[in-house]
Amino acid sequence: MRSSDVLVGMPPPQNPPDRPLPPELGPASSHGYNCRCVAAHFGLDPAPYGVLPACSLSERQYRKLLLEAAQVQDEAKRLAAVRNVAGAHRKYTRMREIAHRLDRTDLDLAAVSDLATVFYSAGDLRNARQCAEAVLQVFKVSTAAIVHFGQYAEVRMIEGSREVADRVLISLATEEGDVAKARELIAGQRRRAAFRKEAGPEQYPPELLDVHGTDEMELRIFDVRVQIAAGDLAGARAALEEILAALEVLAEVDEIRERVTHQQTMARAERARIRQAGGEDADARADMLRLSAQHEGGPMAAKAGIGLAEARALAGDLPGAVATIVAARDELATAGLTGDVAEASHALGMLLLYAGDVAQARAQFEHAKTIRTANGDVPGLRVTDTALARCAAAEGDWATAEDYATRARESARASGDWSDCLHTDFVAAAVGFARGKEPRAVLDLLLPLTLAAAEYRFEFVSPQARTAWAREIAAPTMGMALALLSQLQEPRLAAELIERTCAAGAYTGVEGPSLGLTGTLPSLEILPSTEDTRLPLAALGSVTSSLPLRLAPPPALRWSPASSSELEPWLRLAAERYGLPRRATETVETWPAAKHGRETFLLRFADAGHTFLTWRTTEDLDTVHTHPIDFALVGTARQVLDAASPTPHEGESVADAVRRSLGEDAFGSFAGEQRLARVLALNLLPADLVAALRRAADGGNRPLLRIQPSPSLAGVPWGLLALPDRRADHVLEIDGIGTCFDGDERVLDVADVSLLAPAAIPRRPPAADGPPVYLLDPRIPGQSAFGELGSVLGKQDGTSPLIRHLDARLAEGPVLPAVGRGLDLVRRTDTDRRLLAELLSRPCSRLVFVGHVSRVRDEYGAQTALHLSCSAELPGTAAPIGPHRPFTAADLVLSDVDTMPARVALIGCASASDFGLAEPFGVLLATVAAGAGLVAATVWALPTSAAVPGSDPMSELVIAVDTALAGEDPVTELCAWQRSRLARWREKPEPASSPVFWAPLTCLDATDDGKTWVR
Length: 1015
Known about the structure:
By secondary structure, this protein is α/β, with parallel strands linked by helices. 50% of the residues lie in helices and 8% in strands. It contains 35 helices and 17 strands. The strands form five sheets. The protein has a five-stranded mixed beta sheet with strand order 7-6-5-8-9. The protein has a five-stranded mixed beta sheet with strand order 10-11-15-16-17, sandwiched between helices. α6 packs parallel to α8 (214-229). The radius of gyration is 35 Å and the shape is elongated. The relative contact order is 0.06.
């Protein structure tokens, strides 16, 4: 469409032009208003003004065509809303024909601007741009005509079309990665909207005044797309949650409901895209399922079905997934959605590629490329080129693979799209690595993108998003980088990369306590004052993801006193290459203080496909050892441990789990337990570490083994592991593992063992010294003593060993809460979060909690919880369980409980399970951040004493822990106690002495880390 072909149709002008015809109006065929012959109207010479076809129409004919134009436009909009591009295109073509007969530029501009939107939604970026730019060009001509005839108010009739076309150009600029241009156009839209609002209803109709804010909501969605193009997926995701919440409110307004529904679809589609890009597959599927249900039978449902087909394929139904995509593609093709057809072919190609059918996959990618080339879809072509690179690499055609990868990389660099740069660089690195390209060249590409991918997850507000990004995006790059560093024999760089991965810090983002646990509870009806930084109770909700908690990224890490970090130059390169901010932080040491005459071993594990171990000692920090542990070995270790652990499996009762754990093949017999200890050792302990431990122990001073496990190894009882005497030269069957051992030497026999806290966890100074605090077996509202959250200590009386121990403590001095006898410390009903905050506000030497610990939700550490005597009415971040609300790690971070005593015991089911999550900051590490230097906890669910009638192993463990925490060196004392339990087990392997009761106990010891600093 040329500007010279478009008419300027407006109501008849009231006054004749008082100046010559402007030059820009000369080439136009008409500049009249409302199809009336302007020259004839004013008795002017008609030659310069052209001939108006509409002058031949009668008033009746004119009105009839105008009514038809309005009806056709409504039908076109309806078809466009359901993404029936072909039908909408036909209707808009008819509307343009009518506009030309009527000489109505405003109608023609409305049709063409809407067509720009239709073409964009179809993926036809070339035609979308042509239509949008034509509208803006004609707008200039029309405006000149408006000025010429003095009808300034009539600009409102074409203003809306200009805004629609401008939004298409915003989308196109965003697609091309021209973030600055997109932001400039968005700012222009907001500026003009403000002008119209200031002019008011006297100058503009309601639809141009954005009375309900729907135009602004659309601009906010465009802002999100710009954020995505700029690589800020985290910010975009947070913004979308706010947008969707606002749209829920607007959806209640009848007159804008249809448009709001369309905007909700836009927002949910964007959120699904972000979730899928970040590895949040389940949440992305939820969005797509909702879109599919909402638009059932239409193109949007077909498009959502393409995304859902991938999950179907992963579930094992590849033929069904392929059939779904083919059917959806046919439907999309019928609707004229060529861009979505290309996406369908691309998705089909990816499934075929994963299935190993490279030739068929390539054909699908080539089909997608043909469409995207015709549509001018540059971002889509980048995606296609990376897919074709994978196809070529799969067939060993390395030259072609590198050509495609290089083309995609150059396109991504030109666009400035950070996430595209990361993706295309990864494909190029993968091709180079698989081809055997010069390793240093591959490292130059791979290591910065690995660091950038790992660093970027800390930009997400949502814990689920951080976890998914770490699993799906950061881990694959990390695995390849560590494999390459192993090939290059760069153990130091590999070790630093592992240590950085293990160094994630505490939750941050809260200036002060925002969850009051003491005093008067906030009212649900009264909003807090602007000076009050605390959240109202209603705002706390039940899901931690809604709270202002972000995980702090790793600070700068110092490798050793004699050596600076070799990873630092690579971090600077990653920030420069991918535009990530480098935060100014203090440098944190990654090693604890060495104890004189006692060698300390530092072990850190990281999961990245395989599991990688790095270890060194405080005696020689600059000598490092790194080992990849094959995922199959880790899988075997986990399988045998899960089969023996008393932690219930899905659908398994606690009683059944304990019976399984005390079976002959698990912890119920010495042979079963020894076999487990040997399998774990052979799979997880490298030979050089075992030899070094034995050498250190030969010196007569027991070494200290400090371990930061990866999520896959969080449940390992490290002290129980057997020490192999030799390694087999082939894979052994389970019955043959005994050939690698001469005796029954365990890690506990030669070393003391404790957990190692992540280096970046900030530490507050502990509470001042004072009495011990006991929270023992709190009564939980709504739970009987024998229920799921019932008593863990069982019935106690004055003669019970634990009560006698507590009476002895009382004889030595006061305890908290203040009581006259030990029995009054057990099964209290007032042991809630308010009492905890009040007790810990005083000087205290240690806190001993014995009770239930659980994950209220499984995704992340913030929702691990202690079960105190808290009623559901108390504020907190966890959803109530009947009349009870658990006390979560998030509650601890957000509340007044900001100081812990130097020593803490959390004796409950898998209280050390923080390390089992990709985001480990749960109650264990939250306690450390609040000041605890040492925390005793357990790595699996503890069976209660009811499992062995006539014995009380739970009380034995509590007494041992409390005694050790009161001593000089709790780690040494607890390991000595466990060695005595191991000796008893060897001597008399009966259920009451089984390691199932004492082996899960461990200490997280941060007392010598030298990291006391306030967040």
